[in-house]
Each structure stands twice: as C-alpha cells, then as structure tokens.
Amino acid sequence: MPDESLYPHVTGVGHAFFWCPDDEVAGKVRRALSRAAVIEVPLGEPGVICFLADDMESLLPILEQCLTAPERRLVRALLSSSTRPGLNEFGSMQSLQELGLRLSARWLGDMLMEQRYKSLLQPIVCADNHDQVYGYEFLIRGLHTDGVDIPAPVLFETAEEAGMLYALDLAAGESAIRTAKRLDLKENIFVNVLPYSVDSEEGFTTWLDGVQEQGAIPHEQLVFEIVESQQLPDFETLQRLVARLKDHGIRIALDDFGTGFNNLATITQIQPDFIKLDKSLTRDLIDDGRKWTLVANIVDSAKQSNIKVIAEGVEDKKTARMLESAGVDYLQGYLFGYPSEKPL
C-alpha cells in the first residue's frame, strides 16, 4: 500500500481507490473510468489507482460493464471523503463484487423502509365463464425514487444476494393485503410466499401478523402460492408446511407446477388445494402433442385428488380452448388481463 505522503492535495468530494495485483485488470479499470470522463488523481504508486468521485454507486456500473465476475472479485476498492485520504483510515478494502452487493442491499433496504413498492393484480378467470373472475394474483413491483417501476426479478435477485428475501417477501405480502383491503376485493386473493418464510410456526405467525397489519383479510379468502424460487429440500418438509397453513384455514397453491419439486408425485403426497401449471407447459401447447398429453395427465391426476388446476401463461383463444377441453378449472394470462393496479 502507498505511503500517505504520496497523496497530492486534490480538492474534491471524495476519492475512489482501486487496487489490483493484475496489471491488465488495473489497466481496464483505468481505461473504463477515463472513457467515462472520471478524473484520475496521480499517486505515483504502482497498482493503486485513484479517481475523484462523489460516490461509488456512479462508478460501479461503469466497471461492471468492462470487467468479468472473476475480475470484479480481484479488484479491491474503497471510497474516502477526505481531501488527503490515507488507506490506513479504513479497516479493509472490499472487492467490487462485495461493494456492489452492499450498495444493492442499501437501495433495496431504503426502498423497503420507505415502502416504495406496490402490488399489481392479474385476474384468474373461470374456465367455463371467462367473464367470471375467480381471484387475483398479487405481484410486487418496486419503485425508484422518481416513481419508475423496478421489475420483480431485479428485486428478488438482489434480495437473494443480499440475504433480504424474508424482508422482501414480507413487504410483498403486506402490499397485497393492503391493496386488496383498499380495493375492497371480494374475490380470492392469491399471495406469493417463499417457503422458508412460513416453514415454521414462529415464521408463519410473524409473517402473517406482518402482512395483516394493514387490515385483516378473512383466511378463507387467502390462497398462498408456494413459490418455486426458494426450493424446499424434500417432500416431508413441504408436507409439514402445507399442513401448517391448512390448520390455519389458508388454502395452498403450488406454483410453477411441472418444475422442481412440483411433479405428479407431489399431488398425492402434498394434497394442495390448487396447482398452477407452469408457463412452460402451456406455451406452444397447440403444436406439441407430447406436452398436451402431459398436461392432460396432470389435470386427470389432480381431479382424482379433488385438486383444482389453474393454467398460467394463457395468451390466445386456441390455447384456452385446449386447456378447457383438458378439464382445467381456471385460466390466467395476458388473454384475460395484464398485471394492473386496478382489478379487471
């Protein structure tokens, strides 16, 4: 590390330091920031690069575009607000990857704390009468400070990396209940729930108390969609989870059916109230005879166990008719309505 006496006195809000033992990677950092017109501060110390910067958030996206993931782990960085900063002021330098994760967690934490999120509703209609809305699936969207939507995949990918999935899941549930209460919905309310959020009695109670703070919704109106994105280790764990929720009078839908732990064996072992056929099963159904046979077998198995089937991803009338002929109970997709802030 360079001696503090080597730093020139350069006025500015802050200094961003980058250190990398690989000269080629260090050169990529220097060229990327120089192209972005970020002013370099000469240090005269090999391997250490310093730039004037107000914040690290503005620099990280530039570097993420030109560096690979292994290179981002290799480059270590810090930001100082001192006009004559010394590296000995800091406990340790963090890799660009670690800094990116920390900054992502910060914006997500700010968004959750300020409740900058909303719920969109997508209708689930009866297969025998498309004008009859059976319920709505509630989908969370984040909001930037300027009001622009943040897509759900960005929210959940960031939350998973930052260890904030439970907090985001709680916010999604709270937003769904608050929105349903505000709209005075009488239809069924389908709320996505990550399995580990409710996989213990304590976790379930905390989650439900949190989402119901905005106003109680009758349990018989709620359907918890167990989301595939956070997989459970085995059937036994899933069975216990479903049984716990049913003991509280809450119905269960297995989401993304046909993938992961969701398969035909699940129907008899878990006994959910609903299964939701994954979009991969309903897409191109007209042109794929093998897929049609699989869907028909799933629907038949569900009916033998008195389980209702919801088909997701329905985008055209021909697909809807095929699913209806197979005996699907409910349909969901762009054919019937896009996610919206208002009910159909």
Domain module count: 2
Poorly predicted tracts of residues: 1-12
CATH topology title of the largest domain: TIM Barrel
From the N-terminal CA to the C-terminal CA, the straight-line distance is 62 Å
CATH first level of the largest domain: which class? Alpha Beta
> What order do the helices and strands follow?
EHEEHHEEHEEEHHEHEHEHEHHEHE
Beta-strand share of residues: 15-25%
In the CATH hierarchy, what is the architecture of the largest domain at level 2? Alpha-Beta Barrel
The strand count comes to 14
Radius of gyration: 26 Å
Which class do the helix and strand fractions yield?
alpha/beta
Main sheet strand line-up: 6-7-9-10-11-12-13-14
Shape call: elongated
Q: CATH H level of the largest domain: which superfamily? A: EAL domain
> Mean pLDDT, as a whole number?
82
| Tally of separate helices | 12
* Sheet with the most strands, sense and barrel status: 8 strands, mixed, barrel
Give the proportion of residues in helices.
Answer: 25-40%
